Amino acid sequence: MALPTLTHPTGASTPREANLLTHRTQPRIAVIGGSLTGCTAALLLLHAGFDQIAVYEAAPHSAPRGGGLIGLEHPALDILDRLGIGQNEIVAYTSETVWQVTVRARQPIHTAQQVYPGRNTTWTLLHHALTSRLPDALLHTGRRFTRLDVRHGQPTLTFADGSHEPADLVVFADGRSSVGRRLFDPHRRLRYAGYTAHRGQTTAENTTLRDFLRLEPPRCQYNVAPIPGGLDWTFYLPCSPTAYAHHFGAPPERRVFALPQHVGPAARTHVDEHAARLLPAPHAATVHATTERMAVPVMDIDAPTRMAWPVGHGWAVLLGDALAPVRPHTARGANNGIEQAAGLSAALTHHHRHRADLSAALHAWQRRHLPGAISAVQQGPVLAAHLGLSNP
Ligand SMILES: Cc1cc2nc3c(=O)[nH]c(=O)nc-3n(C[C@H](O)[C@H](O)[C@H](O)COP(=O)(O)OP(=O)(O)OC[C@H]3O[C@@H](n4cnc5c(N)ncnc54)[C@H](O)[C@@H]3O)c2cc1C
Predict the structure, then answer these.
(1) What PANTHER family does this protein's entry cite (predicted)?
(2) pLDDT tens digits, residue range 313-347?
(3) How far is residue 346's CA from residue 306's CA, in Å, rounded to a whole number?
(4) Domain-by-domain residue ranges, the chain?
(5) Read out DSSP for 285-307?
(6) CATH architecture of the domain with range 15-58+142-189+302-386
(7) Closest C-alpha residue for ligand 1 atom 50
(8) How close is the Cα of 280 to the center of ligand 1, in Å?
């Protein structure tokens, strides 16, 4: 994928300029990215009474999209509940139990029971719940944002098709390879952590598994849990950058998601061989029988120091994985994105409805949510080192 053309739009903003969102009856809010964080942010803003919202999603409407198991803690579940997205819609299995099993020579040698303070959903269930509540006219699929300029003080977006849109606030929720992050925080680059999360979804309807099961053989981790229609598993395995490129057709920094069409025979063999060598036989058989596979290279990034930037007369903010992609073991990525989106909606509401100073509101929002993002970024390598999955 060619890198987007970027100009650096950040301009000094006077307090008067920074409050210009109140001068319109409704600020124009552009959300870049229509996955979990972007759609949650848009829906929260819509519920708060903002009606000039547009979500721009690069993937075409027709592109097959779906994803695996995501654990959401109580604060995120509560935010979704307030949007009318109840657990009856997004949680297929209500177990809070996590079985953590130490495995040696393919046999369980120690089992500990834990309680997860939340529930498991899937990307597919949650994304459907969010998008089905967004008015069609608001979600623009197949619109890849490429560039941000300031024209006569007005932040102006440019898209891959050459079209332009003005906005007062740009919410970057464009994920791990965020264009917004490259624009506003260009020194924070993704670094491959040396191992990959291989993922699979089975269609084994007859599974008896109801809880989340975490197996820990030496230097790897295998998580499996029930989802509607089968099982969802994630197998973390060390993998050199060269091997990753061989398995998935591009280096980890370029292929930050390996979709089913990128998973070639070499990747399948690599995962099946490790499953046969490391996992108890029934789990190795589950992996072997799985046809639908994906992979995500585990990445690190320097901790963020900022979430909001003035742009001409408007603002830009980074949310979710765009702000800080965190290692999956932390189970915090989607939680952080949802909580940050709710905080942003509160700050904007108080500015717009009650004339609160926007700059102060955004700085307070940043002060509240940065520590959570920083702690998740820092927690990832610690958890991985405990599993023997540190950088090679
Ligand atoms: C194995 C695994 C397990 C995980 N488990 C958990 C868990 O238990 N709990 C948890 O909280 N999190 C978990 N996560 C993390 C979670 O999945 C992510 O943090 C979350 O999905 C990020 O959502 P997002 O909307 O911020 O970014 P993304 O889902 O990456 O979405 C970004 C969107 O922006 C679009 N986009 C990108 N560039 C552009 C552009 N230029 N113009 C327009 N659109 C663009 C993309 O197409 C995409 O739709 C896990 C992740 C993995 C890999």
Answers:
(1) MONOOXYGENASE-LIKE (PTHR47469), OS06G0597600 PROTEIN (PTHR47469:SF2)
(2) 999 999 999 999 999 999 999 999 999 999 999 99
(3) 18
(4) 15-58+142-189+302-386, 93-120+192-300
(5) HHHHH--EEEEEEEEE-PPPS-S
(6) 3-Layer(bba) Sandwich (3.50)
(7) 328
(8) 31
